[in-house]
Design a protein that fits this description.
single chain; 1017 residues; alpha+beta; nine-stranded antiparallel sheet; six-stranded antiparallel sheet; 17 helices; elongated; binds zinc ion
Length: 1017
């Protein structure tokens, strides 16, 4: 009966719509008063804002305004005995509170931005009473944000709904019965009996309510559908674990302060729905979010805690925040787990042994080791489903990092963390699950996310009907950790994926919003320097270790590593707020460092020097360099993780005389020749008698590409267009002691770039110090170094090691890795010779063919603030919509060398380029500590001591080192301080085994790229 099918399908949707419309009937209006402020205020201050009397259709604020709303009215007598709700939609987000100001439920405008294929984000129903008495007065207060879930004002921000309504629970139940069956019909096999019978049942039910929704008709329709909803599966081949979830970006299209409110709204909704749905399990990640609830909403937090204790809310993912893992440093990733896992354990007694990173833009190959050595067994994401070119082959697999450590990974087969919990979700999970041949379990995260919100009534009503629905995989609500324990039973047959999980997208985020990346690197280095110095000052000079201050600084730095902050994909306001915080954090860290240095300096015997200066070296090898004190240049040495006293009153040292003109600079190692454009035509290596720049090509070529992309992406084919090349406006040259310097000035549109290029005696680095006044729009600034080296692979430093990537585009996998997020260096070497490029704050690297190419800056208009037209701002003025309209300073250096980069010591060179020797002025005095001392050293150049700090617990000294080259090495760590015992610990500093220590020396075995943590007593 072809007519029957066409007729029914269309009308089933109409019937469903009618049911939806029949659930609520408006019975009375509400009066609306509001008190508006620019920034949120507390419940106690709720009437301090500008008072507004409002009606439906009135706009009440501008984007990110806040207001306390009061809705008042009377339930009409006609509603007696009925279920009564309020319908509230102010085209913003609302947190309804009780009479004490405690959050009751979060509401969101129906028109909010969201990927509507995943469901409707709106929440506008506030339940009031199951049985009204009639004539009760209503007064409801709500804390409002003039923004939707995605930081937009929709529909001019007008108030849409403020009503008292009666609810028909029978119609609501029939609506969800009908909806679930209607959708199941479309995902079940077309020829199945199940589908045909559902179709008939829906057809019958539709006719039963054909004449209206009176109680008997609704009951009869429900009865007709009951049989289809009750049909069960046999033995299931695949079962689904369902997780209520609300992905909350801690900042993105809204400022950080709004996220705290998003958290309160979301948790309030979760807690309210838990009263109504006894099966409901909700999982929330990020210790930082819980901490904000604890600080800002203590009452709500106590209720969250009770639900965690009950097993209904799961603290998820073992991390402080869900960070970026491309730009974030290795030690920071360890601290993300250390602080996150500890928080969940201390606050809730829950020890989380998996990492939850559903939305981060790619995952470093260092992560498996970091996780495994912090006791993490499992990892979950879904982001690789966003890759633009290749389909990642697995969703349940063993992920092996660069050192060979492995964890087990589950990628959500539904390819979203915002699932609708609908029949189509379960069908997609089964159809799309690439490892279903070997795995019988899959995970589903449902609820409205990105801007928070979480599951609504619809998700929970659907799930109640889908627990074991014949034809779809059975689904059970449970904790992520419970899922992993079932799923791991099948793990023996999982495939292995080696190396990073590269997202073939969002490579612009290695560069966008450069100042944050610069500060993140500075903070990581400052904390490294300070922890070491403070630990030594505590040990040797009896100073207090500033544990609480360091914890607070670390936690804020970890926050700004969030996967929309550090990658540069947040709105401008987020950066306007976190950049001054970074500056304050850096100053605070440097003050702690200075205090520790002074405490130690007071103990050092400086009596032999007339004008003593103490050089502190935080690197694990002896440093030697030129240092300018006053007008005099000194050749200085500082021992490994130690210090040396220098007498600044001594005469300057003699150095080989460099030479500088605007055409050429030369030292004892290199001759660098510039062409008329300012770029480098030749770098001649005098030691190796070899040219580094191919004939006819130009290195340090600064080029501009049109970049019509956004914060995330530049067009994959941007380089097909001919770039604009910066042309030289002026240059000057000078000699400063052992340094030969050329300063070049370039004008670009309304921007100015000044670059100081220098050679220093005894060094093979060509150093580039750049200051940039940047006003370009839709433009990407890059620097290119074609080098006279041929190799199929280049090497890139990542956290705790390095990776090799092809220099060609043979396969789609090579092609897709458009840029690689390298940390301090990248190296292109053939058997006998190579060239490395070092940097102090950049990440977007590309080595294709024989050209090393570094992405320096991008100015792109989205996420902006939106709605600021290009011509609204005069050229040359900073345009608020475009990123990076500021003054910048950054450094990079080219390092031509014999052999490959690792043999040439590129690892140490890059550390030295990033981490300056600490120079501390002192007075001449006697002291208990000798004028030169090394406190810690390691005898193998492959091993770098990354971290020295006081143990999290007790007075032990934590020393963290790693193998940097990919070799098996036995190294000896020697201590110049009294050490009575040593043990190896994991990354959370939990003891694993005692170590032999003889004469202060400790043998330590390293696998390739292995991280070792030692505790010295
Ligand atoms: Zn996110």
């Amino acid at each position: 009966m072809p007519d029957f099918v066409a007729y029914t399908d269309k009308h089933l949707d109409v019937a469903l719509q009618r049911l939806g419309d029949g659930v609520y009937t408006i019975v009375a209006p509400l009066a609306i008063a509001a008190w508006r402020t620019k920034e949120p205020v507390s419940f106690a201050q709720r009437t301090m804002g500008e008072p507004l009397q409002l009606s439906i259709g009135d706009a009440w604020g501008e984007l990110f305004d806040a207001a306390w709303f009061r809705f008042t009215g009377t339930i009409p007598a006609s509603a007696v005995g009925q279920e009564v709700v309020l319908l509230l939609d102010v085209n913003g987000e609302l947190c309804v509170v009780d009479e004490r100001g405690e959050p009751v439920r979060g509401l969101t405008n129906v028109a909010s931005e969201f990927d509507k294929r995943l469901g409707m984000p709106g929440k506008r129903v506030l339940p009031l009473t199951d049985r009204a008495q009639g004539r009760e007065p209503v007064e409801v207060w709500a804390d409002a944000g003039c923004n939707d879930l995605f930081g937009i004002v929709q529909e001019n921000g007008v108030i849409k709904d403020a009503w008292i309504a009666v609810c028909r629970p029978d119609v609501k139940a029939l609506y969800y019965d009908f909806e679930v069956l209607r959708e199941a019909m479309t995902v079940l096999p077309e020829a199945s009996a199940r589908r045909a019978q559902i179709q008939y049942a829906l057809h019958d039910a539709m006719h039963l309510i054909w004449n209206g929704l009176d109680g008997d008709a609704v009951a009869a329709a429900r009865e007709r559908l009951r049989g289809e909803l009750a049909k069960r599966n046999g033995d299931a081949s695949l079962s689904v674990s369902a997780l209520g979830h609300a992905h909350i970006d801690l900042a993105w299209l809204w400022p950080l302060r709004e996220t705290k409110r998003k958290g309160a709204r979301t948790f309030a909704t979760v807690l309210a729905n838990m009263e109504l749905y006894p099966d409901y399990i909700f999982a929330a990640s990020q210790a930082q979010l819980f901490q904000w609830m604890k600080e800002e909403y203590p009452g709500l937090y106590a209720r969250i805690k009770a639900r965690v204790a009950e097993g209904r809310i799961e603290p998820q993912g073992a991390l402080w925040v869900e960070p970026d893992t491309n730009v974030t440093g290795g030690e920071s990733l360890i601290r993300q787990i250390l602080y996150g896992r500890r928080y969940f354990l201390d606050e809730f007694g829950v020890d989380v042994d998996y990492v939850w990173l559903p939305d981060t833009f790619g995952y470093t190959g260092a992560l498996p080791q970091i996780m495994a050595r912090a006791g993490i067994r499992y990892f979950s994401t879904q982001k690789l489903s966003w890759s633009l070119i290749n389909t990642f082959p697995h969703q349940s697999f063993r992920w092996q990092g660069i050192d060979g450590s492995a964890v087990l990974v589950h990628m959500l087969p539904e390819e979203t963390y915002n699932g609708p919990a609908a029949p189509r979700s379960l069908a997609m999970i089964e159809q799309n699950y690439r490892d279903k041949g070997v795995s019988s379990h899959a995970l589903m995260a449902y609820g409205i996310g990105d801007g928070g919100g979480g599951p609504g009534e619809e998700h929970l009503e659907r799930l109640a009907r889908l627990r074991n629905f014949a034809g779809l995989p059975p689904v059970q609500q449970e904790w992520t950790s419970a899922f992993f324990e079932k799923w791991v039973q099948d793990a023996e047959r999982f495939a292995t994926w080696q190396g990073e999980l590269y997202l073939e997208r969002h490579q612009g985020t290695f560069t966008t919003n450069a100042a944050n990346k610069w500060y993140n690197r500075r903070m990581e280095q400052a904390l490294r320097e300070t922890e070491w110095m403070a630990a030594m000052a505590h040990r040797l000079a009896g100073a207090d270790y500033p544990r609480a201050a360091l914890d607070a600084i670390w936690q804020e730095v970890l926050l700004y590593q969030f996967h929309d902050i550090l990658p540069g994909s947040s709105i401008k306001r987020v950066y306007d707020e976190c950049l001054p915080r970074y500056a304050a954090l850096l100053a605070e860290t440097e003050a702690l460092l200075g205090a520790a240095q002074q405490a130690l300096a007071a103990q050092v015997d400086t009596a032999a020097a007339r004008q003593p200066v103490i050089l502190f070296n935080s690197l694990g090898w002896e440093r030697e360099q030129w240092l300018k004190l006053g007008d005099a240049w000194h050749s200085v040495k500082a021992p490994s993780l130690g210090y040396a006293v220098l007498d600044a009153a001594l005469p300057a040292d003699v150095f080989p005389q460099p030479a500088a003109t605007t055409e050429q600079i030369e030292n004892d190692r290199l001759v660098v020749r510039f062409d008329a454009s300012g770029a480098i035509a030749s770098i001649f290596d005098k030691l190796n008698q070899r040219e580094s720049v191919p004939p006819g090509e130009l290195a340090n070529r600064l080029v501009l590409y049109h970049d019509p992309g956004d914060a995330w992406d530049f067009p994959m084919d941007y380089a097909e267009a001919t770039p604009r090349v910066l042309t030289l406006a002026s240059s000057r040259a000078w000699i400063d002691g052992p340094r030969a310097v050329v300063e070049q000035t370039y004008h670009i549109g309304h921007s100015v770039l000044v670059q100081e290029i220098s050679l220093t005696a005894g060094s093979s680095l060509v150093e580039f110090v750049t200051r940039l006044h940047w006003r370009e729009r839709g433009t990407m600034l890059r620097v290119e170094f074609p080098v006279a080296v041929h190799a199929e692979e280049a090497r890139y430093e990542i956290q705790f090691g390095n990776i090799r990537r092809s220099t060609h585009r043979n396969t789609t996998w090579d092609m897709a890795r458009a840029e690689t997020p390298a940390h301090k260096w990248v190296d292109l070497s053939q058997r006998d010779y190579g060239v490395a490029l070092l940097n102090d704050s950049k990440y977007g690297h590309k080595v294709k063919g024989h050209t090393i190419d570094l992405n320096l800056l991008r100015s792109v208009p989205y996420p902006g603030p939106r709605l600021v037209a290009d011509d609204a701002v005069a050229p040359g003025e900073p345009h608020p919509a475009y990123t990076d309209q500021a003054d910048h300073a950054f450094r990079y250096a080219l390092y031509p060398h014999a052999g490959d980069g690792l043999d040439a010591g590129v690892v140490r060179t890059a550390y030295e380029f990033n981490i300056p020797l600490q120079v501390v002025d002192a007075t001449s005095h006697a002291g208990t500590m000798p004028p030169v001392e090394s406190w810690l050293a390691v005898d193998r150049p492959e091993v770098v001591i990354e971290t020295v700090k006081l143990a999290e617990q007790g007075d032990g000294l934590i020393v963290r080192a790693y193998e940097t080259t990919g070799a098996t090495v036995t190294a000896h760590v020697s201590a110049g301080i009294a050490v009575t015992g040593a043990e190896e610990t994991d990354l959370l500093e939990r003891s694993e085994r005692a170590m032999d220590i003889a004469d202060g020396t400790l043998p330590v075995d390293f696998r390739p790229f292995e991280i070792k943590t030692l505790r010295l007593r």
